[in-house]
Amino acid sequence: MKIIIAGAGAVGTHLAKLLSREKQDIILIDDNEEKLSALGSNFDLMTVCASPSSISGLKEVGASEADLFIAVTPDESRNMTACMIASNLGAKKTVARIDNYEYLLPKNKEFFQKLGVDSLIYPEMLAAKEIVSSMRMSWIRQWWEFCGGALILIGTKMRESAEILNISLQQLGSGNNPYHIVAIKRGNETIIPRGSDVIKLHDIVYFTTTRKYIPYIRKIAGKEDYADVRNVMIMGGGRIAVRTAQYVPDYMQVKIVEQDVNRCNRLTELLDDKVMIINGDGRDLDLLTEEGLKNTEAFVALTGNSETNILACLAAKRMGVSKTVAEVENIDYIGMAESLDIGTVINKKMIAAGHIYQMMLDADVSNVKSLTFANADVAEFTVKADSKITRHHVKDLGLPKGTTIGGLIRDGVGIVVTGDTLIHAGDHVVVFCLSMMIKKIEKFFN
Questions:
Q1: Which spans of this chain does the record mark as coiled coil (predicted)?
Q2: Using CA atoms, how far apart are residues 87 and 84, in angstroms rounded to an integer?
Q3: Pick from 210, 228, 252, 211: nearest CA to 140
Q4: Is 62 left (phi over 0), alpha (psi -120 to 50) or beta?
Q5: Label partner for 145 (CA 20 to 30 A): which of 43, 60, 64, 231?
């Protein structure tokens, strides 16, 4: 598959590295040679110094033969222009990174497709939605809904109070449990578990279940004493913070602490009166205490500096805040954030990459998501008639090692899958696998 990525910024380089491991034909273009020189020699991809919005530049890199053209420069209008030119030259599918929510409205989809932009991606909005999902319940690290919430993924850390420690999954599953354990993150290792695996203290365990059984998961995870989130303090007033404040449920009270006075004035224009804007340094613990940090259930650090966000969350934890969320854009720091027990980590590069990755797949996939802490992906496939996945019970499918089926949605109803489940055409099936294995799973759904 020939993939051209326009823009060697944070999202573009992360995507290029990710896809180069897949043995795809990757060309990364940017008009800044310095950004490209750091990449070319270390990864199996080609770099070209050219303007992403230049017709001659796109002709030079062979946009006419591209199966997928991805424009992820920081400039929205440049991305749109690059996609239009690439599409006009003959690129089969185009994706543009944007920062205007209006473009994503369903009524505008056909308009952009006619212009040659097949898909739009807004990483900051996706990150904000993930933050709000993780804050709905203070005891979870990650929350993801499939088919409007018919099936739910919950990631939570095992403490001493968990009821399911040191018991094999085989024993846990003997009573037809209303959940499925799909992944375990232990230290630096990610496990797609088998029956003989055991849950240990400090593991991050990923469950799939239906909404009805969330209180049951909370009980067995030993998290019943965690306070519900009512008050939220956000450090940093950037675009992710604005979207987060707009998406939080009405029952949550939000305060944003922003150092730049001009940005504070802009925030008061962008957000309604129920969001309190505080001009000050979010690293100033006296200020945060004065503003009620000790009575806050969730603290979200969204400055442009990963180290600041990690340290601020650490300080908030020490002051008794039960739920902390840090934006960590430096991927090397994600492991450190976990070892310091930060809570939820948001990385918009990984979120964006998961959404773009699904466009490479031939099967009918509506969701691809990277689990931020774990080296694993989750994908939601729609089952085609006569596909391989429908021919045998799950236990006899011969799924590759490192993959598991977490559940399915049939006629709008979430079902936890067992070895004896038979999958039907039209089912939405949620598959978990170690990173970059989705391509191996895809053949079961074609």
A1: none
A2: 5
A3: 228
A4: left
A5: 231
Pair 121, 96: CB distance under 8 Å: yes
Q: What are phi and psi of 294, to 5 degrees?
A: -70, -20
Closest CA to 46 of 64, 24, 68, 65: 24
Please check whether residues 272 and 369 belong to one and the same domain. no
Mean pLDDT for the chain overall: 89
Name the pLDDT band for 195 (thresholds 50, 70, 90): confident
Alpha carbon distance 184, 406 (integer Å): 13
For the beta carbon of residue 411, count every other beta carbon within 10 angstroms.
9
Residues 40-67: b if buried by 16+ CB within 10 A, e if exposed: eeebebbbbebbbbeeebbeebbbeebe
For residues 416 and 179, the answer to whether their CB atoms sit within 8 Å is yes
Q: Which residue has the tokens 């854009």?
A: 329
What's the pLDDT at 377?
A: 81
Helix (H, G, I), strand (E, B) or coil at 110: helix
Confidence band for 411, pLDDT divided at 50, 70 and 90: very high
Listed range (302-311, 369-378, 423-432) with the worst mean pLDDT: 369-378
> What 8-state DSSP symbol labels residue 150?
T
Distances (CA, A) of 368 to 217, 353, 392, 433: 24, 9, 25, 11
Judge whether 126 lies within some domain: no
Give the DSSP letter string of 59-94: HHTTGGG-SEEEE--S-HHHHHHHHHHHHHHT-S-E
**Three-state secondary structure readout of 398-435:** CCCCCEEEEEEEECCEEECCCCCCECCCCCEEEEEEEC
Look at the block and give the residue holding tokens 């918009």: 348
The answer to whether the beta carbons of residues 3 and 12 sit under 8 Å apart is no
Please name which of 101, 123, 117 lies closest in space to residue 353, comparing C-alpha atoms.
123
Q: Which two tokens stand for residue 19?
A: 């896809």
**Residues 423 and 319 reside in one and the same domain:** no
Number of domains in the chain: 4
| Residues 345 and 313: beta-carbon distance below 8 Å | no
Residues of the domain holding 13: 2-121
| Residue 354 pLDDT > 80 | no
Indicate if the pLDDT at residue 364 is higher than 60: no
* CATH number for the domain harbouring residue 406: 3.30.70.1450
pLDDT in tens, 78-90: 999 999 999 999 9
Q: Is the Cβ–Cβ distance between 43 and 16 less than 8 Å?
A: yes
